[in-house]
Amino acid sequence: MRHLLAERGLKDEVEVQSAGTGGWHAGAPPDARSARAAAARGITLEGAARQVTRADFEDFDLLVAMDRDNLADLRAIAPAGTEHKVRLLLADGRDVPDPYYGGPHGFENVLDLVETACKQLLDELR
Questions:
Q1: Separation between Cα atoms, residue 1 and residue 80, nearest integer Å
Q2: 64 pairs with which residues across the strands?
Q3: Rounded CA gap, 24 and 19, in Å?
Q4: Which of the four pLDDT bands, split at 50, 70 and 90, describes residue 13?
Q5: Neighbour tally for 36: CB within 10 Å
Q6: pLDDT for 55-108, tens place per residue?
Q7: CA nearest to 48, candidates 25, 27, 32, 24
Q8: Could you say which DSSP state residue 113 is in?
Q9: DSSP characters for 39-103?
């Protein structure tokens, strides 16, 4: 998403953070396989993993889940009146598959899905 925002001249207009619903990877850098697949497309993955907090629902206008399990987790911790801020990334309601189990091309396939969905989301939000 950051890459697309930069391409569209919107990098200073939209704040993007990544967080998981579980804390088991907190503090870890992006997965090396994801970073390599992204770098092959000219995209740099940065940052460290963190867990979603209740404060995120106040701090951000939109929280985007990659799959229905994470969507349910986000809705479960959403403070009252903020549930409308949560949605799936894929507009057609499909889950973004976990690339860890997608074989050698799993990360490429996920990047394809995420890139297309992020473009659609940006178009929708404009």
A1: 28
A2: 87
A3: 11
A4: very high
A5: 12
A6: 999 999 999 999 999 999 999 999 999 999 999 999 898 999 999 888 879 999
A7: 27
A8: H
A9: HTTT----S---B--TTHHHH-S-EEESSHHHHHHHHHHPPTT-GGGEEESSTTSPPPPPGGGSG
Q: What is the pTM of this model?
A: 0.90
Q: Which domains does the chain have, with CATH numbers?
A: 14-125 (3.40.50.2300)
The confidence score (pLDDT) of residue 34 equals 93
Other Cβ atoms within 10 Å of 96 Cβ, number: 18
Task: Give the phi and the psi of residue 89 in degrees, each rounded to 5.
Answer: -65, -50
Instruction: Note the residue count of the chain.
Output: 126
Using DSSP, state whether 18 is helix, strand or coil: coil
Whether the CB-CB separation of 20 and 56 falls below 8 Å is answered with: no
Backbone φ and ψ for 51, nearest 5 degrees, come out as: -100, 140
Nearest residue to 73 (alpha-carbon basis) of 54, 96, 59, 98 = 54
